[in-house]
LPS export ABC transporter permease LptG (Qipengyuania profundimaris), 365 residues
Amino acid sequence: MQFDFFPSKTLTVYLAKLFVVRILAMLFMLVLVLMMLDLLSNSGKILAVEGNGQGQLLTYAGLRIPQLVQSFLPYSVLLATLITLVALNQNSEVIAMKAAGLSAHQVLAPLLLTAGIVSLLSFAFNEQITTRATATLKAWEAVEYGAIPQETDVRANVYLTDGTGVLSAANLTGSGSDIAMTDVTWYNRNADGTILEQVDAGRATFAAPGWRLEGATRFSVQNAVTEELDTLVVGEGLTPAQIDLAKVDPETQPFWELSDSIDAYEKAGRRTAELRAKWWHKISGPLSAFLMPLLGAVAAFGLARSGQLFLRAVIGMALGFAYFVVDNAALAMGSFGGYPPFLAAWAPFLLFVLIGETVLVRTEE
């Protein structure tokens, strides 16, 4: 009996290589299929804009693929776990390893190590690449696939209120007094919420106080009159500080930047439960890849000729997909305050660690 957690170096490298190749193959297959389906759904909208062509389709794919990798890397690890362990079982390699004195945990150790490294790489990829791609894609979608915004700090679909007035913008760039908004609409309402007039403008900048709409078109609802204006100042109660906090999108902000946004929200007395849950999930989400070998481990053991190998693989897949369902449900509960943020992000992970260990110990140890 070996008491080291990892088997021999040769066996560890062998199992890790098998696992990595299958993870990459599953990820490539999933991303390729889902990207094709996504392009079928959205290519018409992209090509409908004058001047857009193959280059814009490739740009869309380049911005969308990081999101697909972020979402489906844990699924790829789960499928790779099942394929790897079923093949090892069918070829009696698991039996040979157990006959050599390895425990079930030692058989899984190289896979867990590999999945842990994948989790770290996934976290770095999500925070460095996916957040930027998501911010750019959302800003591009906000202008209906027109000219791609060149700024790096773009926020899309900003919605602000100033008393009874409402100011919305398709895109917002900059911060403080340097904020600039594009595709702006101002709604002037009375006390009961009825719209009195609507003002559309291509751009808005800070007028200290208020926001200067440039090239504005004002439509009066009461008498149905349209008026062209060079400039118009609205929303004098809206300060740059309020607008900086108007919309924080966790999907477009890296982990460390989101921390600063949460601190600013708390200082302003704003509710931060949803943001805090998403902040914690930026860690627990990638770490779910580490959990997949444990949940799929049930497929590794049991005699292949017993006729129960397929059933074991189905159980492993069911455990993995059950985790994703519970994780999404807990995160949704945390978003509206049903669960504390830490519990919403970490409870599913810890729960399924216990479930996976229980199944493994009860069946094999």
Summary: Strands lie at 155-162, 165-173, 180-189, 195-206, 211-220, 225-234.
